[in-house]
Amino acid sequence: MELYKYIELFTNNQASIIKYWSKDENLISILKKHKMPMEYFVQDYAIPIFQYYLNILKHKTKIGNCPAVEELIKNLKSNNITTSELFLICSSFRNSLVNFTFEQNINNKQIEKEITKVYEANFSALLSYYTKSIRDVEIKLDKINAMVDKYIIMSQTDVNGMIINVSEAFCKISGYTKEELIGRPHSVVRNPDTPKELFVDLWETISSGKIWHGEISNKAKDGSIYWVDATIEPVFEDGKIIAYTAIRHDITSAKKVKAQQDMIIEQSKSAAMGEMISMIAHQWRQPLQAVSILTQKLPLLKMIDGEIKDEILNKVVDDVGVQLDYMSKTIDDFRNFFKPDKDKQKVKLSELILKVEEFLSYMLKIEKVKIDLTYEEDVTLELHYNEVMQVFINIIKNAVDAMIEHKIQNRYININFYTEDKNVIINFEDNAGGINEEIISKIFDPYFSTKTNKNGTGLGLYMSKTIIEEHSNGKLSVKNGKEGAIFTIILPLEKE
Question: Top-level CATH class of 152-250?
């Protein structure tokens, strides 16, 4: 091989040959197009490629086995290099070798022929690698497209809202075939119960070139309703909107769960309201009896004394007024209790517990239940006052009900709290006998009740856990102590 004789010459003049290559106009244009600096190309690709050619001539490597070339193709392919550009890069290197031989006055046709032969064989190998690489990418893209079609709820409409393309996932959730959807208006899946204002806002947004995002209720072919979280954006061409693409994900299950939770909350509110009305009746029983006795006192005095003295009349009126004020205050307390907590408010924990105890005072007195509150240092919390108050009342009332059911004699509820890390730990411990270990893990489930008199709704503790854990960023748990149940509430302390 004639070319083999000049290996040492090529090796010693590597810089000159690469300099010829780097000045080639085609190479300069291609690198500029693909935003690759010439210095970077020379250092990372030109020098290794030159060594690769020398190794071919020395029979140390085979044609087509050059990592630097493969890396160069990968780099340029990411910017959509064409086969013609690849040809120009390779031919510019060939030309640099030929020009160098001319400069060295090696006017040997055999040398040029052998350079061309090596170039052609190498370019053929590169082209094969490039084509295979492109095909691999196409196969991967095909797989990705298939997955998108199967799992992504996607549709595309023209500017008038007529469907021009849908995914398999869209067909599956809507119940329609592609043939039934393409060419029809997107309103084919519209839920007639959806407010018109939503669609007005949607069209105003996307027709102005902006992206719309929101939740939409749709109607399937079989009449069932499903919900999607949708993102709709315009498709532009030459600055004009030519279509709209919508990507969605199914949120039907989440909506059903939310609806069930809302129903449970409403039922819980109704149950709580019923319990509170019952407690109002208890709270009013004593003052009503007092008023009744006072009013009966007047005719009795008149019958005995023949008249009612002013001081006695005034005293009765004052006493009746005190009882009526108490009844009015009770109504105010209960009315405030049912006001929605829009904002959190700061409150000392001891004051909140004492307010709960005052709220339940008559029931605790009648049922002879003693509450003992202990703590070393008071804390200030920022919370939904009425909601947390409802939790405390529910825990205490459940304990009292259990004491009555189990006929406990010396009834007590010990409440204590202390700080730990950045939280306050509140314990409610009763002596009602505890909760059966077989069911203790279920007591926070909705509609689960331990009350044998069937007066329990099974919603109180469920709502209590919801209030503490979802509304107050805390935790509510229960375990059995020595004499009864211990409910533990963990709440975050106010941020300083």
Answer: alpha beta
Stretch 396-423: mean pLDDT, rounded?
92
Which tokens hold the place of 371?
A: 């509450």
Q: Residue 14: phi, psi to the nearest 5?
A: -55, -45
Q: Which residue has the tokens 């590169």?
A: 126
CB 290 within 8 A of CB 250: no
Provide the token pair at 407.
């006929």
Give dist(CA 124, CA 414) in Å, integer: 88
Residue 465's pLDDT is what? Answer: 87
List of residues 6+ apart from 484 with CB closer than 8 A: 399, 402, 429, 430, 431, 432, 433, 434
Centre a 10 Å sphere on the Cβ of residue 459 and count the other Cβ atoms it contains: 23
Q: Which CATH class is domain 252-338?
A: mainly alpha
The Cα 262–Cα 240 span in angstroms is: 45
Q: Where are the domains of the chain?
A: 2-148, 152-250, 252-338, 340-496
Question: What is the rounded average pLDDT for all residues in the chain?
Answer: 80
pLDDT tens for 444-474 read 887 666 665 545 545 678 878 888 988 889 9
Residue showing tokens 């009864």: 484
What is the structure's pLDDT at 454?
46
Query: Which CATH number applies to 340-496?
Result: 3.30.565.10
Indicate the SS3 state at residue 251.
Answer: coil
Classify each residue of 369-391 as buried b or exposed e, where b means 16 or more C-beta atoms within 10 Å of its C-beta. Answer: bebeeebeeebebbbbbebbbbb
Half-sphere exposure of 13 (CA within 13 A, CB side): 16
Query: By C-alpha distance, which of 350, 382, 348 is closest to 493?
Result: 382
Question: Counting Cβ atoms within 10 Å, is residue 17 exposed (0-12), middle (13-18) or buried (19+)?
Answer: buried
Hunting for tokens 């008071």 — which residue is that? Answer: 378
Helix (H, G, I), strand (E, B) or coil at 176: coil
